[in-house]
């Protein structure tokens, strides 16, 4: 029996972010209903946490081979060219994720250096942005793990 690969830290992070979004959104609704006003921080935190959920969830999907792709060409090719295609897919993914990680880290450093504050509640902007290079780096690692598992036959091409 093959065990399905997992990305437990990203799964926990995405779950925690989703729980926090739910709690602060519910708190905002109740506050608005009771007082007629709303909590100022909820939108800023919700948007930030939705980005965390998106990247962490994408990392989990990469590790579990759950991303949507068209496998018609892969299934039609013999083993050698099929593996070359998998490596090409990996190279494309690593290139994009590497660029996102690099430029995300560069942006985080600039926001830290210039001490930029968030427009809503005035927190340091880099607190929000640092998750971009961290989670795209995690996706890069998960992409590599998934590709290795596909090449070695530990993971089937069908999710």
TrEMBL record:
Presence of the UniProt keyword Coiled coil in the record: no
Membrane topology of this protein: Multi-pass membrane protein
Residue ranges of domain Tripartite ATP-independent periplasmic transporters DctQ component in the record: 22-152
InterPro entries xrefs: DctQ (IPR055348), TRAP_DctQ (IPR007387)
GO cellular component, one term: plasma membrane
Domain of life: Bacteria
Keywords: Cell inner membrane, Cell membrane, Membrane, Transmembrane, Transmembrane helix, Transport
Transmembrane segments: 12-33, 45-63, 84-105, 125-141
Molecular-function annotations in GO: transmembrane transporter activity
One GO BP: C4-dicarboxylate transport
Subcellular localization(s) per the UniProt record: Cell inner membrane
Record carries keyword Acyltransferase: no
Quaternary structure and interacting proteins, as annotated: The complex comprises the extracytoplasmic solute receptor protein and the two transmembrane proteins.
Family: Belongs to the TRAP transporter small permease family.
Functional description taken from the UniProt entry: Part of the tripartite ATP-independent periplasmic (TRAP) transport system.
Entry protein name: TRAP transporter small permease protein
